Amino acid sequence: MKESVRVIRFAIVGTLNALIAAVVVWLLMHIEGESYIIANICAYIVAQIHNFMWCKYWIFPLETDDKKNSIWHQMLFFIGAFALAYSAQFLFLLMLVELLYCNEYLAQFLGLFVYGAVNFICNRRLTFR
Fold this sequence. Notes:
By secondary structure, this protein is mainly α. It has 4 helices and no strands. α1 (about 5-30) packs antiparallel against α4. The longest helix is centred in the N-terminal third of the chain and has 29 residues, at about 5-30. It is elongated. The chain starts with a helix and ends with a helix.
C-alpha cells in the first residue's frame, strides 16, 4: 500500500477517534462533572480500542504468517505506542491548562494532534512493520 493512502486512512480513523474522544470528554466533563484529567484518560482508552481494530485490518494490514505479526505481538506494541503517544499528549495537555491557562476543551482538542503524530510514527515504525 502506498504511504499516502496509509496516511489518508490514518487521518480518517484519527478523525473518528477524535470524535469519539470529544464525545467522551464532553459527557464526562459537562454531564458528569468529572475533571479534565479523568475525562481525558477515559476518552483515550475508549478511542484506543476503536483505533486498534482499524489499524490492524485497514491502515497497517500485514500477512499473518510471520510470528511477529501475531495479534498478541501487535497488541503489546500497540499498547506501547499508545503509552508513548498518550504520555506526549498528556504532558502537552497539562502544560497548556496548568502553565498557560488554556481552556480545558481547547487543550483537549490541541492534544489530539500531538497524540496523532506520535501514534502514527510509533505504529508505523514499531507495531505494524
